[in-house]
Amino acid sequence: MNLTLKIWRQKGPQDKGQMVEYKVTDISEHMSFLEMMDVLNEQLVAKDEVPIAFDHDCREGICGMCSLHINGEPHGPDRGITTCQLHMRTFKDGDTIYIEPWRAKAFPVIKDLIVDRMAFERIQQAGGYISVNTSGNTQDANAIPISKLNADLSMDAAACIGCGACVASCKNSSAMLFVSAKVSQFALLPQGKIEAADRVRNMVKQMDEEGFGNCTNTGACEVECPKGISLENIARMNREYLKASII
Amino acid sequence: MSGFLSSSIARKVAMALSALFLIFFLIIHLAVNLTSLFSEEVFNQASHFMGTNPLIQFAMQPILIFGVVFHFVMGFVLELKNKKSRNVKYVKYNGAASASWMSRNMAISGMAILAFIVLHFIDFWFPEMNHKYIEFLPEDPTRYFAELQHKFTNPLRVGAYVIAFILLALHLLHGFQSAFQSIGFNNKYTKCVKNFGTIYSIVIPLGFIIIALCHYFNH
Ligand code: SF4
Ligand code: FES
Fold first, then answer.
1. Regarding the domain with residue range A118-246, which homologous superfamily does it belong to in the CATH classification?
2. Which residue from A62, A117, A160 has its CB within 8 A of the most atoms of ligand 2, so it is best to mutate?
3. How far is CA A2 from CA A5, A25, A28, A93, B72, in A?
């Protein structure tokens, strides 16, 4: 298939950046979206042009590195997948595809399509962990009784890969889905209960300081999340936060 | 804004609580208005009670005004902050793919409702305050119905009211269930809340519309 690509090019953080048009030909519909980008980059290198910088790592939907806002949606038009899992068969011959980086003040562009997602890292460091003594006599986690329901809900929340599609899709650039997944995965387990109040307070404080917007429950994040993280997590985080603030 | 209301979640909860309060108030307001369709006398009695009861006038009314002002001011503060959170806009942004029009345009429906409230205050509340607390005109417990009828003779006003209530319905269609989500209420009853919210969001504004139209066509 032959495609027209309109891609955001930006030399560095200070550069103003702009959309640049490219043509690619003979793209196989079996290719992944990132393979199509590789083909384009090979063409650019052959022409002595600077290839387009974009994030990727595992290319199998588990690391969360690949990003790309494709035709107005994070990870493109398909549901429940990352960009590396998006296939060219989703598009038609002759299509024009817009490719942009995640847009949020808290995710500044580093180069072309790569954004700095360290804000998520700092939120995690503010409380997204449990303190466990690993001196050698650590209690076996399996020895702690946990209800099946909570174990499952916690596992579902832990599926978040920190990709940032929730922020990218949200009209408010809110990071609530990500933060609520990270709060929930611990809040649901006995091991996480001890530090629950401090965790939610500190993570929300860091989230606000990073400059993410306020959640207005549009639900766009849940629709665009490649891992199906549910809005229930946001409600849970709101409860956890209220509990931690009032008590 | 400092203290408790400096955190995004606290603001969100405050928005939700003021919203739930206003949602509750709408029911009372509609109930009083509905009496005007059935009995002039009952409407006058209800209005007289609302307008002269000290608890309602000096406790509930200030709380209500605070609730309205708070909901608007906080709503716009949050909207501005949210706009700033995306300093570079997308060239192509397909918001409709993942969220409803109502949820993405609460500020627009909110502004329309604000414009309506200004009109509504000019129509009813300012004259009322003037009557009672500035000019201290003699209280006639039967004056309310005639005042109401008089207001709904102008087709432009009736049209503006109808449009405002349609926007209120759109605002509520997202706002009702959103308020519950914000206070952390998301559980096995959420489906019920959503369904009830949809019914409420249509029935209540429709009630106000019917009342306005009835008075317009029956005067
Ligand atoms: S919640 Fe979903 S969209 Fe957001 S960072 Fe996690 S996996 Fe990505
Ligand atoms: S590259 Fe790892 S999730 Fe896409």
1. Alpha-helical ferredoxin (1.10.1060.10)
2. A62
3. 10, 4, 9, 5, 50
